[in-house]
């Protein structure tokens, strides 16, 4: 469309369309990642900023919450070698994803993963104010390798990683993480 606008002499429209096209291409980028090796390591399921690390006081263990701004890569990756044990979608609101209430109230998709030792972690894809579409490309019984792509959330969003209570969390609020590469916990 930008090229067509240039051809008909609409330079300002062509530049605006070119900027929009570059922003969309940047948003949907999918860089190659190399997951670290090692027993019991859990890598970040998404790029972004850690906004909360729950101490394990809530039922089900510990939680690491990652906010993805519209400038982050929005591909979601498996945090460990595991089999997909369950997937649960829940409709909800579209609050700003950096707010704590987004984990409980926003539209979300929970992917429960079980490793070879039977330990489970859950990755929750949470839609934000701009994000209105969650993509999950796996089903129950599928096997994933640490760092492997399994879905994405469109535009600004949040990913919560639920860990067993005895997991040692390796990140703090305010830290930036890279999906499939940054070690966020040890089981």
How many separate structural domains?
A: 2
So, CATH architecture of the largest domain? Distorted Sandwich
Provide the residue-averaged pLDDT. 91
CATH superfamily of the largest domain: Glucose Permease (Domain IIA)
What is the number of strand segments?
A: 14
How does this model look, in words?
By secondary structure, the chain is mainly β. It folds into two domains: 1-30; 36-186, Distorted Sandwich (Glucose Permease (Domain IIA)). 14% of the residues lie in helices and 37% in strands. The chain is built from three helices and 14 strands. It has an eight-stranded antiparallel β-sheet, with no helix packed on it. It is elongated and about 65 Å long. The model has no long low-confidence stretch (mean pLDDT 91).
Please describe the topology of this protein.
Blueprint: H1 2-7, H2 11-27, E1 41-43, E2 48-54, E3 62-68, E4 75-77, E5 82-90, H3 102-105, E6 108-114, E7 120-127, E8 134-136, E9 143-144, E10 149-153, E11 157-163, E12 168-169, E13 176-177, E14 183-186
Antiparallel strand pairs: 1-14, 2-3, 2-13, 3-11, 4-10, 5-6, 5-9, 6-7, 7-11, 8-10, 12-14
Give me a quick take on this structure.
It contains 3 helices and 14 strands.
Supply the key terms.
187 residues; Glucose Permease (Domain IIA); 37% strand
């Amino acid at each position: 469309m930008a090229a067509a606008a240039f051809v008909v002499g609409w330079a300002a429209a062509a530049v605006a369309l070119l900027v929009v096209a570059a922003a969309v291409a940047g948003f949907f980028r999918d860089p190659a990642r190399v997951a670290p090796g090692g027993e019991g390591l859990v890598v970040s399921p998404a790029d972004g900023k850690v906004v909360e690390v729950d101490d394990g006081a809530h039922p089900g263990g510990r939680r690491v919450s990652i906010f993805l701004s519209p400038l982050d890569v929005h591909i979601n990756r498996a945090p460990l070698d595991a089999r997909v044990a369950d997937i649960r979608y829940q409709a909800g609101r579209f609050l700003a994803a950096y707010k704590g209430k987004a984990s409980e109230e926003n539209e979300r998709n929970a992917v429960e993963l079980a490793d070879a030792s039977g330990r489970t972690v859950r990755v929750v894809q949470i839609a934000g104010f701009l994000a209105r579409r969650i993509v999950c490309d796996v089903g129950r019984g599928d096997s994933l390798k640490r760092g492997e792509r399994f879905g994405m959330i469109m535009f600004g969003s949040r990913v919560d990683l639920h860990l067993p209570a005895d997991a040692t969390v390796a990140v703090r609020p305010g830290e930036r993480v890279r999906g499939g590469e940054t070690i966020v916990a040890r089981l």
